[in-house]
Structures are given as structure tokens and as C-alpha cells.
Amino acid sequence: MAGTEPEDRKSHITEQPITLHNWHRHVNWVNTTLILIVPILSCVAALFTPLRIPTALWTVVYYFWTGLGITAGYHRLWSHRSYEAGLTLRIFLACVGGGAVQGSIQWWSSKHRAHHRWTDTVKDPYSVRKGLVYSHLMWMVLKQNPKERGRTDISDLNQDPVVVWQHRNYGFVVLTFGMLFPMFVAGLGWGDWKGGLVYSGILRFFFVQQATFCVNSLAHWLGEQPFDDRNSPRDHVITALVTLGEGYHNFHHEFPSDYRNAIEWWQYDPTKWSIWMWKQLGLAFNLKQFRANEIEKGRVQQLQKKVDQRRARLDWGVPLEQLPVVSWDDFVADAQSGKTLVAIAGVIHDVTDFIKEHPGGKALISSGIGKDATALFNGGVYNHSNAAHNLLSTMRVGVIRGGGEVEIWRRDRTKKQNLGTSL
Ligand SMILES: [Zn+2]
Ligand SMILES: [Zn+2]
């Protein structure tokens, strides 16, 4: 859509609340006409226009062409430079992309680059944080505050004569490829001029518009986040089905210059398949792809983050560094005065509540009270399970200074040996 917001010198209209008197000044009428008023009028016209089979088939074909103009052209080629295209393919994509009636390549790509650079912030032109309907539609229906506009570098696009031509002649492109071309095909082909205009022209671009808008709304709201959950982009097959494969949006925001959105062969990404096919035909080249190793790293790190979050919610016992340090003699004295304390691997455990429930019986634990039961616990009698180790850690109450009886014994022995040699 064309950015035709008139700027008030004192304050922009977007800084004033919407009221009954000023609402029409908040509306971007050019956008609203192209994405709402004309499509709604054509829905009414469709009630009085019979849908003929060849027109229906042509509408579906042209839906895919113009959809690809957006996904493979506007998005993956011009916004992200994920591959290069020869002049023929660029002209084709600029024409059919224009026929999707979503603004010029230059306008669309600058907004989209801002969306990637400032995802979920006020400078994100279609931030889902402002609401699902806002990110889908209202960001175009309402004027945007120029102070919140996220600026981006599109100098590379201005070097492409196809992009410059399309921007300068956008009105002609929309009229020709949005309405006249599909109407002429149906009219000259099988005499259905009205059906060609209503179905293959206007209703078709209405559907392509709504499908593309789902990438900004649905793909930031529905699905999984296998690569990064700090921002809103998500992966979901439904969004992929609606948007010619643009639904693997969590992956896309992590690896935006990859020509693929779906990395698995069985996932639905007809945009990727088309680009690959154009490569085979010599129309596209330099298809960019992140190494599987880099992609897997992102996936593993996100998995690790989830595991860490689950781990943090569990009781693992008091951390060792927070436990009081107790001398061996004090530990023995405490145990003799009636406390049910057991030392295992240099850590004192209070087994008062557990002693009766011990699956190995009360007697075994009792025999370790006031003693270093490390060997007993770690296989001297029975090699305890991982679960037992975990349970034990929740009972820890102190750390033995110097590590426990074994260390004291070894230290004493070394001292005696040293004394012996010095004598
Ligand atoms: Zn996005
Ligand atoms: Zn993108």
C-alpha cells in the first residue's frame, strides 16, 4: 500500500485518540479502498455473477502465480535476498506480485525488513504485540505514527531497475495485473469478462491479500517455537497451507536469508519448490541455505533452554555452597546426641523422616548414623538408583569440613608418615 500519510506540523493524527469526529482522519483511505472496500463490493457483485468452471480454474492458477509473486518475489527474493533471479523471472515476479495488490516491492520490502529488525517492538510495523487484528489488517487501515517508523536500508533494491520501474508505475501494474490481465484471459479465452474481473481479478487478490496477512498475524500467534522463543514467530502447518509455505515462521525469523521456510522434504513449502525448479530451468541461482549443523545448534539450544526451565522448577535440595560447613567431630557429636545424620560423599544428610520408609529397611540406615556411609550407599551393600541419589540430595543439611572421615584419616596418616620420615 502507498505510504500517503499527510503529516500535521503540530502533532500527527495518530497521537490523538480516535473519536466520532476524527476517525476518518485516522483511516488510510488508499489502503482501505484496496484491501477492504473494493473486495467487499466484489463479494456483493459475486452474488450476481455465475462462476463458470474455466474461470474457477483460471482463478486458482492465477491465485498461485500472484501468491508466488509475493512469497518467492517480494519476500524471499527482494526482502531477504535468499537467492538471485535473472531479468525474465524478476519481471514476471514484479508483475504477478503487483497483481496481488499489496503495495510496491520497495514499500513492501522496507516494511518487511523493519519487521525483522524490530520484531515485536513499537518500530515493528505489524507487531503482534499490538493485537492479532492489528498485525493482520489494522496496521494498513489506520495511519501509522511516523515517529514510530522503523527505518531500513533498501539501497540494494533501488539498484534493481525492475524494482524501480514497478514502484514508479505501481498504479499501472495494479490495474493491469490485479484486474485487467485476469479479466482479459477469461474474456478472450471463453467469453467470461465479468467473471474474470470479479473472481480471477478482485476476489482472487482479496484472498491472496488475506493469506499473506496471515503471515503477519497467524504465524506470530499459532504454533511451535523450535528455534527461539524470545520473540513471537511460530511454526505451524495450517499457516504454511494458507501462505504457500510461509508458515515455518520461527525458522524463518532465525534464518531469514535461507531460501527455504520448511527444511524437511515432507513439509509444505511450494514457494521453496518453485524457486528450486526455477534454478533447474536456469532462471534462478545462488540459492542460500544455512548449514544443517547451524540449524541443529539452534534447535538443541532451544531444547536445552526448555529442559533448564523444567529443571529449575524441581526441588534438587539446598545447593552445596549454601549448606553450613561442619567439622567431622561436631557431626559425630550431633549424631550421638540423637540426630539421625548420615555422611555420604562429604555431605551430611538428615534422614529422620525417611528412615522408616527406606526400601532397604531401617536397620541399614541406622548402621550408618554418625558415620561416613559413602561406601554403604554407593554399592557396599546396594548400588542405589539415580532416583535414590536425587531423593538423597533433598535431605542434605551440611557439608563436612575437609570432605569427611576418609579425608581426615588420610590426612592424619600423611602427617604421621611425614613425622616418621623427619625423625
Ligand atoms: Zn514475521
Ligand atoms: Zn521475512
UniProtKB/TrEMBL annotation:
Record's GO cellular component terms: endoplasmic reticulum membrane
Recorded topology in the membrane: Multi-pass membrane protein
Chain segments annotated as transmembrane: 29-49, 55-75, 87-108, 170-190
Pfam families: Cyt-b5 (PF00173), FA_desaturase (PF00487)
InterPro entries: Acyl-CoA_deSatase_haem/ster-bd, Acyl-CoA_DS, Cyt_B5-like_heme/steroid-bd, Cyt_B5-like_heme/steroid_sf, Cyt_B5_heme-BS, FA_desaturase_dom, FADS-1_CS
Catalytic activity: octadecanoyl-CoA + 2 Fe(II)-[cytochrome b5] + O2 + 2 H(+) = (9Z)-octadecenoyl-CoA + 2 Fe(III)-[cytochrome b5] + 2 H2O
SMART domains on file: Cyt-b5 (SM01117)
Family annotation (CDD domains): Delta9-FADS-like (cd03505)
Compartments where located: Membrane
UniProt keyword list: Electron transport, Fatty acid biosynthesis, Fatty acid metabolism, Heme, Iron, Lipid biosynthesis, Lipid metabolism, Membrane, Metal-binding, Oxidoreductase, Transmembrane, Transmembrane helix, Transport
Assigned EC number: 1.14.19.1
Function of the protein: Stearoyl-CoA desaturase that utilizes O(2) and electrons from reduced cytochrome b5 to introduce the first double bond into saturated fatty acyl-CoA substrates.
Protein name according to UniProt: Acyl-CoA desaturase
Organism whose genome encodes this protein: Penicillium argentinense
